Automatic annotation (TrEMBL):
The keyword Magnesium does not apply. One of its GO terms (biological process) is response to amino acid. It comes from the Bacteria. This is Lrp/AsnC family transcriptional regulator. Keywords: DNA-binding, Transcription, Transcription regulation. Transmembrane segments: none annotated. The keyword DNA-binding applies. PANTHER family: HTH-TYPE TRANSCRIPTIONAL REGULATOR LRPC, LEUCINE-RESPONSIVE REGULATORY PROTEIN. It holds the Pfam family HTH_AsnC-type.
């Protein structure tokens, strides 16, 4: 990626709805240049897709939590396939620390979150889990 590609990505990270014409104007290049670059970034996988980021007002009725899992050796594939089928599981990360998986969860209520945590803790291969409920967000640089 060169400076123009990074500029396109940076602008789209702030607002994925920007049109090609607006991107071209902001980056001071031809629309056709931006279009060709976008197609190349998409084809190469540098841009995997365009998405919607919910604002605080849309997320205020969601309870968010992080769940730390320690799992049995060689059970990751089975656990991951079951976690992917739980709509409350938004993200799954492997880690290099004392836990094996870090999950980001979102639920409509504390009782729904409690049920999901019970389901996760009961999965075959899960040794232990620890959950942390998110209270407020002080900084969010994700794009």
């Amino acid at each position: 990626m060169d400076d123009l590609d990074r500029g396109i990505v940076a602008h789209l990270a702030q607002d994925a709805r920007l049109s090609v014409a607006v991107l071209a104007r902001r980056l001071k290049v031809a629309r056709s240049t931006v279009q060709v670059r976008l197609e190349r970034l998409e084809t190469s996988g540098a841009i995997a897709g365009y998405t919607l980021r919910l604002g605080d007002s849309a997320r205020e009725h969601r309870i968010r939590a992080t769940c730390l899992l320690t799992i049995e050796p060689r059970s990751q594939v089975g656990i991951l396939s079951r976690l992917r089928n739980m709509p409350e599981v938004e993200r799954i990360h492997t880690t290099s620390g004392r836990v094996d998986l870090l999950l980001q969860l979102a639920a409509a209520s504390t009782s729904q979150l409690d049920d999901v945590l019970d389901q996760i803790g009961g999965l075959t291969g899960v040794r232990s889990s620890e959950s942390l409920i998110h209270l407020s967000t002080k900084l969010d640089r994700s794009s």
